[in-house]
Amino acid sequence: MKQRKIRLIFIVVLILLSLAFLVQLSKGAYEMSWKTIFNSIFSKELLLDTTYLKTQLFGERICSILKIDKPNLNSISNEALIIWNIRIPRFLIGICVGINLALAGCIFQTITKNEMSSAYTLGISQGSGLSMLIILIAFPSLYDWIPVLSMIGGIIAFLLIFTLSWDKGTSPIKLVLSGVIVGSISIAVQKGLYYFIQDIGMFQDVLSWTTGSLIGLSWHQFRMIFPWTILTSSLCLFLHRPLDLMLLGDDNAKSLGVSVEKWRFVFAFIGILAASSAVSIAGLIGFVGLIAPHIGRSLIGYSHKNLFIVSMMVGASLLAMSDTIARIILRGGGQIPVGIILNTIGGVFFMVLMKKQKKFSKL
To answer: Which sign does the torsion angle of CA 291, 286, 95, 37 carry?
Structure first.
């Protein structure tokens, strides 16, 4: 029954992603007809001579090692370059970011036993963002290492949270409170760093990043986030059983042979990898890590293997659809950061959820 439900959810998500993909290909500063889009996607120059696609997927360094020739861009139309170099990678990055944030939300909600937990509310995203901001301002030459350095920032933030909450063990309430403290301090330092930015262009980029945005992303950022998406999703799907046992409570889980503190730390590390890789690429996007697990549990239940799968699908479609709205909501080709759309959707979602809970509590 559950497998049939997962297949149905997959079909719905596939339809939503397909619609979002088609809209994102056609809309933007340069709008295209469906015929132009079709001819650009199935461009003979790109399909017969695959050096361009190989260069974008693997990067120039790996291509030089593999001795792959540089592509002849003069033979490729401008429309094909816009679609393949800007719109397709942005869509794929959005899917990866949505998956990572959803996974992190599932993990942190279980290990803190708080359904309002996520990498953002726990302060881990802010810690990752702080390390990224320092790199952008002080060490821009290390840009290619931002995902790794962002993860280090997230790990440091979590270690602070873990240390603050530790007292012969950790408790979910102390973890959440410690996360709020560390997140508040990180945000304060981030705002202080704004005064050290002298370049207006960099300030606009940083402001867009703190809001959460996919604007201007390309294959380079996709190559940075995709390996971490594969790693974190694989780890979650293979190591889900301890999380299921932790739902029974710490004492019951320990009686069944689960080292609760060890697995809490292991899964927190996986959550940090997922959240930090998303933050390093798309900035401080909130609510995906909150909404996706909530929807997943309401659709499929609490078993983490199924919950991870459904949450990943929900997170990917939620971010892709939100980014589509962000692209078309303004006229004249203007765009707004996807974080604004998601914050609006998230706020409305939880207002409705709270209203429903109040109604049920009166019964």
So the answer is: positive
